[in-house]
Amino acid sequence: LHGAEAKYHIYRFMLERGEYEKLEKRILSDVNSLSAYGTWMGKSFIILGEVYAKLDNFDQSKATLQSVIDNAEEGEIVEEARLKLEEVNAWERLKNQPVNNAFQFDLNGN
Predict the structure, then answer these.
(1) Which of 14, 21, 29, 104 is most open to solvent, judged by the fewest CB atoms within 10 Å of its CB?
(2) Residue 79 belongs to what H/E stretch?
(3) Alpha carbons 102 and 107: distance in angstroms, whole number
């Protein structure tokens, strides 16, 4: 593994552990060292987009993922970002659905 790939695997581990705020800072601080590795930078930014969604920052999540879609040179990375963007849009719709807490009880047994 080279450094950028190793960092990506660390990011995945941190994401799985729910260390969202820490992970956001880590990826942003590593941006310069990732820039020479297009694949790993793209994959890392897809994780960052997911982190923003987990933190309910859907606008930033969508902007990050759209940036990967617009700028990545590899089709696989573009497709991965596109699929993640679809997921984020679904999460946001689900999160913004009104919760119906109105329960109706039929006390007459009907």
Answers:
(1) 104
(2) helix 75-95
(3) 15
Residue showing tokens 């719709």 = 93
81 in Cβ contact with 72 (< 8 Å): yes
Structure-token pair, residue 95: 């999160």
- Give the model's pLDDT for residue 86: 98
Query: Which amino acid, 67?
Result: S
Q: Collapse the DSSP code of 13 into the 3-class scheme (helix H, G, I; strand E, B; otherwise coil) and give the result.
A: helix
Query: Would you give the distance in Å from CA 108 to the centre of its chain?
Result: 49
Cβ–Cβ under 8 Å, residues 45 and 7: no
- Residue found under tokens 């890392």: 44
Between CA 98 and CA 101 the distance in angstroms is: 9
Read off the pTM. Answer: 0.84
Residues with Cβ < 8 Å from 36, sequence gap 6 or more? 4
DSSP one-letter code for 97 = S
Residue located via tokens 């999460």: 91
* Tens-digit pLDDT profile for residues 28-42: 999 888 877 789 999
